Amino acid sequence: xxxxxxxxxxxxxxxxxxxxxxxxxxxxxxxxxxxxxxxxxxxxxxxxxxxxxxxxxxxxxxxxxxxxxxxxxxxxxxxxxxxxxxxxxxxxxxxxxxxxxxxxxxxxxxxxxxxxxxxxxxxxxxxxxxxxxxxxxxxxxxxxxxxxxxxxxxxxxxxxxxxxxxxxxxxxxxxxxxxxxxxxxxxxxxxxxxxxxxxxxxxxxxxxxxxxxxxxxxxxxxxxxxxxxxxxxxxxxxxxxxxxxxxxxxxxxxxxxxxxxxxxxx
Amino acid sequence: xxxxxxxxxxxxxxxxxxxxxxxxxxxxxxxxxxxxxxxxxxxxxxxxxxxxxxxxxxxxxxxxxxxxxxxxxxxxxxxxxxxxxxxxxxxxxxxxxxxxxxxxxxxxxxxxxxxxxxxxxxxxxxxxxxxxxxxxxxxxxxxxxxxxxxxxxxxxxxxxxxxxxxxxxxxxxxxxxxxxxxxxxxxxxxxxxxxxxxxxxxxxxx
Amino acid sequence: xxxxxxxxxxxxxxxxxxxxxxxxxxxxxxxxxxxxxxxxxxxxxxxxxxxxxxxxxxxxxxxxxxxxxxxxxxxxxxxxxxxxxxxxxxxxxxxxxxxxxxxxxxxxxxxxxxxxxxxxxxxxxxxxxxxxxxxxxxxxxxxxxxxxxxxxxxxxxxxxxxxxxxxxxxxxxxxxxxxxxxxxxxxxxxxxxxxxxxxxxxxx
Lengths: 266, 206, 204
Description:
The structure holds three protein chains of three kinds. By secondary structure, chain A is α/β, with parallel strands linked by helices. Chain A is built from eleven helices and six strands. In chain A, strands 3-2-1-4-5-6 form a six-stranded parallel beta sheet, with helices on both faces. Chain C has helices spanning about 5-15, 25-60, 65-75, 90-120, 130-145, 155-200. The radius of gyration of chain C is 27 Å and the shape is extended. The mean pLDDT of chain C is about 95.
């Protein structure tokens, strides 16, 4: 068994994350302006407002995206919003459906009146355009094949003008399509995204095309603080902070060794 | 001839979708709806074509004896999902969702989690201040990381503000310029496609 | 521990073995993942899209005009034979044409113009003084665009602007790298939390 430098780096990360998670120490984090903005926006929505929740992500990013989605869904149900789930990525379908059912159960929300899960549409641009004309024509049935008109929540909904906005839970660029193709219908877009996508969406947040954004495990932890429900975000914060410091240390060590080698060569 | 027909179909659908954008007339809205529905149905078939391609490829490899155990495992994994869905459905608590949640999701997210290790390794081996632009890149990354690492202490008072300013101003400006560039590029490419100047989408073959 | 957790834990460990090097255990897990995920896509596409959008309305509600997308969809299968390959170009033409047609006004209005407008609004604050941050954004957008303009040689004043543009780009890449590190670490923390809490039951 031959170990190289990278194996030691991997072992260090393993050990660090393992120890910090086992320690169970929780960090109190200040809430960032982005997260506060999302919370305030949802708080301002009147009771009974309908919010589309689009699960635009794959299973691969679930450990990061699930705490964000769960915190936002909890706030939505707690605030008596009526949530209509859908997915523009196949894997988001089963994840979104289960997550909505689980969260709804915590708040005794009833399927069909308080929330509905519509299912998956494969061509995201076509789905966004089609829903802008008619949600019913886009989803004649829900995920489990129940007709649109049999669902009390859906019956009065025609198109985007009947909803408060869409909350896109995304690990890629799908939220962009909601803003750009939904922008034609004046659709308000909120987003819960992985940290890696933050800089992609910053111009949209600045231009007002995106109303609010919660990002990453840290964003989830901040949101959990705001709604006073500890979840996966808060539990992982010490590990997250330690991992950042570990990477910073590796960058410094890498640079020190680089400059030492260069000096020796000169 | 068939290529010309395909280009004409592309032009016709492109023109209609372009024109309906500027109209609020019910007919235009209905056309938008109909084309979007057709588009989704055809796209769904395209996904199924991909699935058939996967099966084709795996059967061929099995026949040739290349990676046979792994290919058979892939095929078994593929077959089990539709079978479970046909027998028990796709609701919560069904075997279909059980396999999705306990087989697919853990593996897929762990494959993605491997990237954490390679990022750490790359930070040590490749992230070096060899030049002024590289030093700028490095500094921006470190400021962002440090600002998101401390809950309390002297740094937490001012560093998050600096990091937010960097993110919302110089960093956002560069991203915005990239977005504008992509926007203009997509616009011209779309025009070339509709007008039949850009035909690479027709592919090879007769 | 329930059987689901045991299966998920063992498969997670199988994938993690790749960190040492590529090996048969990892390959087995990877092959299974590929098969299961494609099977999943087939089921979801069939049950949640084709049934509700095509077959139920066509066969039960009698919406006969849905034969048109059905025929276009079936033409896609022409790809599997040289003689019928040409058929697949027609549905691809529908998708490419529709996408390109709608992209022109959307890219112009929702992306280019809105982002340009946001760059210059407002440059001067209510107090009458210029907004320094807004000026930085304007400088960043213009110089980065200069960098991406390759039809003119990057020298003289234009070259200086392009060089400043690269600095802005470096700040963007650095910021993105910082957030990307957070993202990747979060995913790994999530998997470790599962292993330690649910699989090994080391934490509560």
